[in-house]
Amino acid sequence: MSNNTELTIIRQAILKELEGHEFYKMISERPSNDLETKEVFKQLANEEQKHVDLLKEMLVRVNSGKTEGMDEGLELDVPAPGSAKWRNLRKDSGSIAVAAFGIAINMEKASIEYYTNAAAKTQIPSAKALFEKLAKWEKNHLELFTDEYDDMLGEWWSEQGFAPF
């Protein structure tokens, strides 16, 4: 694989993470959100920013041709599944919450697919390791969003008068 292809993969990954960061930041800043909801989405925005920073460092290293030892300084500890506690999130934001979580689920699925494919394509071992870790991290996010979305959706259907379903 050419260096240009590797750089394109990393640039696209940076874009995906920036999109996630901006989306989660936007949701965290909604005036109608309670403090706990704001904090959850703020934490997610910060995680996405950390991914951006790691990918930018990788971009610099690949661009300079210094891929030896790229694993150093590119640490990424993936939190254990279910480590974030969202049980205190308010469910009364209705359609906005359902929509935000639905969009987040689709974003996370797309990121998992992207990182899985990127790991399979790259010829740089440390890039492969980073992409695999990012895929695991996004799977963690997906699991959290899916569990919360399923809980929220039942309440939302009921509020809309669609119960029993």
Q: What percent of the residues sit in helical stretches (DSSP H or I)?
A: over 70%
CATH fold name: Ferritin
CATH architecture group name? Up-down Bundle
Mean pLDDT: 80
How would you summarize the topology of this molecule?
Elements: H1 3-28, H2 35-64, H3 94-121, H4 125-159
Helix pairs in contact: 1-2, 1-3, 3-4
Q: Can you walk me through this structure?
A:
This protein is mainly alpha-helical. It has a single domain, classed as Ferritin. The protein has helices at residues 3-28, 35-64, 94-121, 125-159. Helix 1 packs antiparallel against helix 3. The longest helix is centred in the last third of the chain and has 35 residues, at 125-159. The relative contact order is 0.15.
Task: Please tag this protein with its features.
165 residues; mainly alpha; Ferritin; 72% helix; elongated
Please outline what is shown here.
This protein has 165 residues and is mostly helical. Helices cover 72% and strands 0% of the residues.
